[in-house]
Amino acid sequence: MSFKVNDKGVFVSDAGVALRDKDLPMLRWGDGFSITFVLPAGVVSADDSFCLAVDVDRFLGNGLCALSETATIDAANNTVSFEGIATNTQKFLNAVNGKAGCVEGQMQLVRYVGGDIAERQTLLDDRCMLKGLVYVNGATVYILDPNAAYTKEQVDAIFATAVVFQFSEDGEEWHDEQTDADVFLRFKNPAVETAVWSDSIRFQRSDIVLLVERAETAATKAETAQGKAETAQGKAEAARDAAVTAKNAAAAANTSATQKAVETAGNAALAVSAKNAAANSAATANQKATIATNAANAATGSAVAADAAKTAAQNATSAANGAVATVNGAKTQVTADKNAVAEMKGEVQTMKQAVVEAETIAVNAKNAAVTAASTATQKATQATNAANAAANSQAAASQAANNAQIAYEYISNNTQMLDITVNADDELILSQYGTTTITFDISEDGDLLFETI
């Protein structure tokens, strides 16, 4: 092969154009390589010496891919030739072995003027191509044993096979079925004939036990909550029954008081006043009952309905007991007053009892309404019961007013009329026909105390 080199040390064509990769010198590993360089005129002298080197990394100290220091010089034609350059070096093999195409190398031609190594000139420094061989003498063809390698299907089957586990309490004795006492495990792939068991692995059994205990605790809490709910339901039903009983007792007490008011009504003016007071109390009770009803509706969803019902029942029972006590107290007061003025005329005794009973009814109605409203704002069920009590009180008050009206009509038709006045000392003065005069003092509790006739 003959290659032209210009004065810049580059391979060129006859037209002086730099060569492309496919036109550059190519060396094959193991083949003897020969090349002739056509140099610029006047460069070559017969007494010169030349050196040709080929490498891939320009790294001094780790050898070359090829080297030749024996050249044939033709000064007349300006050529330098190298024959039989050895290419079977280890560095060359390392560069091209396993490469399907060419590997780029560097080729360098050096001139020693007059053979003196101190007079060194680089005439060529350009690329070349290196390539490996497909076959060399003594190469062996390897025939693969089909049993020596797995196919893709076999590999996929191995990975698709589930591993098997064994368990142990101490890491020494192994069994296939896991027990609660086990704390070690090992595994292997049964699809591989030569597979062996893995090293023992300790697992945290306490975590599993903790999860089970948590589940059991949650189930126990659910059962306890269900029991509490059933107990609360029972308490609510008992409270409801107690409230109904208290409600009935209060209604009976109010009925008894109303009857006494009818029996003892004796004064028209006081009866009218009692009617008006009862009407006002009824209106107030109606308003408070409406507020109580709204509060009851707002508190319907309370989570503590059972306890509220229990408290409401207790309060209702207390209210009923209070009502009974009030009636008994009124009866005692009436009896005491009756004994004190036994010598008074029957009309005066009847009038006093009517006043006391009417006032007691009005006070009881007012207190029942206030108690119902206050209790309703705190407890839902209590508020509902209070609302019912207030409604009953309203009915009782209306009945009392009607009874007072009857008394008024009765007295109006009676020929023996009483004149009622209040003097400057806030004493109640009763007189009949302007002749008989009875004086009562009004206590701080609203009771009439007999003074003089």
Explain what the structure shows.
With 453 residues, this protein is α+β, with helices and mostly antiparallel strands. It has three domains: 2-131, Immunoglobulin-like (Sandwich); 152-202, no CATH class; 229-412, no CATH class. 46% of the residues lie in helices and 20% in strands. The protein is built from seven helices and 17 strands. The termini are far apart. Residues 298-303 have low confidence and may be disordered.
Tally of strands: 17
Q: List the strand order in the largest sheet.
A: 2-1-4-8-7
Strand content: 15-25%
The radius of gyration computed from the alpha-carbon positions, rounded to a whole number of angstroms, is 63 Å
> By helix and strand content, what is the structural category?
alpha+beta
Calculate the terminal CA-CA distance, rounded to whole Å: 166 Å
Q: How much helical structure, as a percent, in the residues?
A: 40-55%
User: What are the secondary-structure elements, in order, as H or E?
Assistant: EEEEEEEEHEEHEEEHHHHHEEEE
What profile does the largest beta sheet have?
5 strands, mixed
Q: Enumerate how many helices there are, as a single number.
A: 7
Mean pLDDT: 73
